[in-house]
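During the second half of the funding period, the structural biology subgroup turned its attention to how the target accommodates small molecules. The most pressing case was heme C, which had performed well in the primary screen but for which no bound structure existed. We therefore specified the complex as follows and requested a full 3D prediction, including the ligand pose.
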Amino acid sequence: MSTRAINGGLGAIMVIAIVLSFAAARDFSRPNLEFLPDMVHGPTYHAFEPNPHTPDGKTLRPPAPGSIPRGQMPFRYERTEQDALRAGSELTNPIPADDDAAQLRGSVAFAVFCQPCHGASGAGDGMVAKRGFPPPPSLLIEHAVNMKDGQLFHIVTLGQANMPGHAAQVSRTDRWKIINYIRSMQAAASKRPAGAEAT
Ligand code: HEC
């Protein structure tokens, strides 16, 4: 076969290829042919779409009445003495007294948030109290020892008289851990068995 014939043939193939590629061109902004789409397009409603199947016509459902968002357990008590007593009878400490890691965390949180006023040992001789803030009563004496854990939790959460509430700066679990730590300080001070809550 002559070179001329081969070039002629290759030229023809090139022309055919170019013509075919134009002929097969399609709009790439549109989906291609879907072969057996199966479950690609589910009959779901998107969150903000109107929905004929729900009573209020919205797809997004409101939370059921009484739902509590995770980590936002409500605290239904007022900053009153009666409510502190009520918290004492209704709330129980979810942290076991013999949880060493919790004790450690309680001691750290106590040192950060309570020690400035209550003192390192809880005796009420913190630096802030020494510099003019009304000194708190000792946490190691009868009055605090006889309070129930829930009552202490109420005081730490909402405050009492001159003591501000600590709900904003100390997490709920840390507050319970601090209470366990206070119990162990009280136990050490009075040689009561650790974790024995006065009733
Ligand atoms: C700004 C200073 C201050 C800080 C910080 C503080 N307290 Fe107090 N606390 C007080 C004062 C003052 C009182 C006394 C309130 C009163 O007159 O009833 C008190 C009272 C208490 C009582 C009641 C004691 C009793 O016998 O009536 C408890 C329990 C207590 N605090 C725990 C804590 C814990 C736990 C923390 C840390 C999370 C803390 N407090 C942080 C100042 C403080």
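Two results from this model are relevant to the next phase. Strands lie at 159-160, 163-164. The first strand starts at residue 159 and ends at 160.
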